[in-house]
Amino acid sequence: MKVFLQSPLAAIAAALVAGAVTVAGFAPLAVFPLPFLTLAGLLLVWLRAAAQAAFWAGFAFGVGLFGVGASWVYVSLHDFGMMAAPLAAIGTLAYCAILSLYPAAAGWFLARLVRAPLTAVLIAFPAAWTLFEWLRGWVFTGVPWLALGYSQVDSPLAGFAPVIGVYGVSFVVATGSLKDRLAGGVALVFAFGLGHLLKQIEWTSLQGAPLKVALLQGNIPQDLKFQADRYAMTLSIYKRLIEASKGRLIVLPETAIPRFLDAVDPSYLKDIERTAVARRADVLIGVPIRDAEGRYFNSVVSVGASPSQRYDKSHLVPFGEFVPPGFGWIVKTFAIPLSDFSLGPEHPRPLALAGQLVAANICWEDAFGEEIIRQLPEATLLVNVSNVAWFGDSLAPAQHLQISRMRALETGRTMLRATNTGMTAIIDPRGRVVARLPQFSEGVLEGEVQGYSGATPYVNLGNT
User: Fold this and answer.
1) Are 34 and 24 in contact (CB under 8 A)?
2) Per-residue DSSP letters for 136-200?
3) Alpha-carbon distance 325 to 34, whole Å?
4) Cα separations (Å) of 132 from 37, 109, 160, 173, 350?
5) Is residue 254 among the annotated active site residues?
6) Is 363 in the active site?
7) 0.90 exceeded by the pTM?
8) Strand 381-386 vs strand 415-419: parallel, antiparallel, or unpaired?
C-alpha cells in the first residue's frame, strides 16, 4: 500500500475513492464507522505528500465526497429547474469543485506546517480538518452539508453534540482517524467512552404540559406545485388535512400555499382560522409574503387561537432564493420561481403558539447550528418546514433529516419537521426519530411532544 501511494496519480485516485465511500457514513446508509477509516486513508496520503500533492489529494477526496453526496444538485437543476442537461452537469461539477477546495486547503495546510513529530500531527490534523469544515459552513453564506459530525448521530460520539456541536464532533472523528494505531486507537476508545457518558446527561428539562401536534405532508409534485391550474387542488388538500388533524399545533410545509399571502382568498384563511379556534389550536402555514415595497419573503404565518405571528427566512439559498451580484445571467438558464427573496430579521423571536415558544426555521436553515440557537434558550420547541421535493428521490431528504437530528441533539429540544414530500418526522431531544411519514405519500403525522427549557453548553457557546 505504501509503495502504491507513492505514485501521485495513485494517491489521488485513492483519495477520490475514499471521499466517495465516505458518503455511506451519512444517511440513508449511515454506516458511522466508515468516516474514521476513509479519513485515516486520506491522512496516510497527506503525510507522504508535499504541499501541492496534498492539496490535490484533498481536492480529490472532496470531489468524491461531494460528487456522490451532493449529486442531488443535478436533480434540482435539471429535473425541476429545467436546465439543459450539459449545463446542469457543469453547474453540479462546479459546485462540487468549489466545496472540494476546503479539504484541499486542509491538506495543503497540514503538509506545509507538519513535518514528523507525532504530537504535532495529533493536534494539527483534526484542527486543520475542523477549521476548513467550519469555514465551509459560513464563507459566501456557507454550505455545511456533509460535515463529518453529522455521520455520528447514531454513534456514541453523539454525546458530544450538546457540548461542542457538529464541528466539535467532526474534530473528534478526525482525532479518532489518526494514522498511528496506538494514538488513534486510544483516542477512539477514550472518545467513545466519554461520548457514552455524556449521552447520560439531561442537559434540558421539561417545560409545560405534553402537546399534541400534527405535521402535514401534502405530497404536491414539484413540477406541478406552482402551476396555476393546480392551485385550487393544493388548497383543497391542505384544508382537508387540517380538518382531519387533532393536534393543538398543526404545521404545514414550506410554501404549502404556493401564492403570495395577499393574493390568497381571505375566506380560505378565515375557514382555517375558525377550525383552529374551535379546537383551541394554532396552524403554522408556509407561504411567501409580499410587502408594500415589493419585497418578498419566504415565511411561515400562524392562524388560530393565539394572535397571528410570522417568521421570515433569514438564511437564503444562493441562486434558489437570491441571486448573488453579477450572476443574474445564470438564473435565466433554469426555471425556479420566486428566486429573489429578501432577508428576514437577523435576530428572530420565537413564536408563542399552543402554549410553547416555537423556534421556526425554513428549509436548509436548520443546517446552520449557530443560527438555530439564536432563538434559544427562550424557545422550547424547534419547528422546521421544508420542501425537499426539489431534490426528488435522491440522498438529500435523508441527509436533511440527519441534519435536523443533530440540531435536536445540540439544543436539547424536540424538533418537528413538516415537509411537502418527505421526510416529515418528530425528533426527540436525543436526536431519535420518534415517528415519520413515508416519502412521497400524503398524510398527517400526529404525536405528543414535550417542550424543553434550559441551555446545553453548545447553546451557550455556539461555535466559539
Assistant:
1) yes
2) HTTGGG---TT-GGGGGTTSGGGGGHHHHHHHHHHHHHHHTT-SSHHHHHHHHHHHHHHHHHHHT
3) 40
4) 20, 10, 20, 14, 32
5) yes
6) yes
7) yes
8) parallel
Active site residue 96: no
Determine the Cα–Cα distance for residues 28 and 17; give it in Å rounded to an integer: 19
Which pLDDT band, with edges at 50, 70 and 90, does 224 fall under?
confident
Q: Largest Cα–Cα distance of the chain, in whole Å? A: 74
- Cβ-contact 134, 142 below 8 angstroms: no
Residue 338 — φ and ψ, nearest 5°?
55, 55
Q: Please tell me whether residue 355 adopts helix, strand or coil conformation.
A: coil
Q: Find the catalytic residue in 133, 321, 363, 370.
A: 363
Sign of CA dihedral 216, 221, 226, 232: negative
Catalytic residue among 96, 313, 371, 410: 313
User: 117 or 78: whose pLDDT is higher?
Assistant: 78
One of 254, 321, 365, 410 is an active-site residue; which one? 254
Q: Which residues sit opposite 447 in a β-bridge?
A: 213
Q: SS3 of 317, please?
A: coil
> Is 3's pLDDT higher than 60?
no
Are the beta carbons of 358 and 190 closer than 8 angstroms?
A: no
For residue 375, give the H/E element and its range: none
